[in-house]
Amino acid sequence: MTQPSNRLFPLMIACHLRRLWECRAGTSGVEFALVLPILLVLLAGTADLGHALTVSRKVDEISSTTGDMISQQGTWTKQDVAKLLSGVSFILQPYSISELRITLAIEDIDSTGAATVNWSAGFNTPPLAAGLKSEIVVPAKIQQKGVQVVVTHVEYTLTTPVSSLFAYFTGTNGYSFERSFFNRPRAADTIAYK
Asked: Which domain holds residue 164?
């Protein structure tokens, strides 16, 4: 085989480059390789957001269910309230309940509309001290002097693999949820705690 002459070599290179430029056989493969990481990030983000929305709904359900059940009786024992709080925590399943904090407070409303804690119970958090001024503002529409208010406050932090990856950029390691729910007693104006 003979070597191409020096004059033909540039022509051969130009011919090969032109054929390579005109050949579209690998274009879709290259485009797919460029778009694939974007599609994977979108898929992971969608799944992650789905988990966050599910947990948000479950946190709402925990707060409303707890307040609703407590408001239906005029007297509760410490053991029954502890069992109730433990039971409603299972609403969060299959997610971990280690980061779930439920604070239940029965609050007295005075003539000025200020709320103070009469009694409290907690799940994964200590109960509020009796006589403590409420940190959560009770809506004026449900305030009535001499009628207690059931305040259920739920906090939860969901950490997912995607949120952990972006913790460096966002400054938070997961999604934080915080809900408060208010009920008035149904059986009487007050709820006793033994």
From this structure: 8-193
